[in-house]
Design a protein that fits this description.
94 residues, 5 helices, two-stranded antiparallel ribbon, elongated, three-stranded antiparallel sheet
Length: 94
Amino acid sequence: MVITIEPGCYFIDTLLDAAFKDPNLAKFLVKSEIDKYRGQGGVRIEDDVIIWEKGNENMSDVPRTIEEIESFMANGKFDDCTVQKSISDHLAKH
């Protein structure tokens, strides 16, 4: 079985505005810091994990930094066939 773990942080104005007006929620928020990121939308990072009978394996040995991502994307075209072959090669090793 393969699962995806997707932690994320999203800046949704409607929800933030309501939270700032609610004293029970506002006490946990630092508006000046949150306002720096409003308009960015948010960020999410994903990991795909294979669940094996005797353990699990994180398949996401992908670039994480801006420099790594730019280098990865500059090195060639990554279409569905390339991705499928990469997955097949990975699974063949196990």
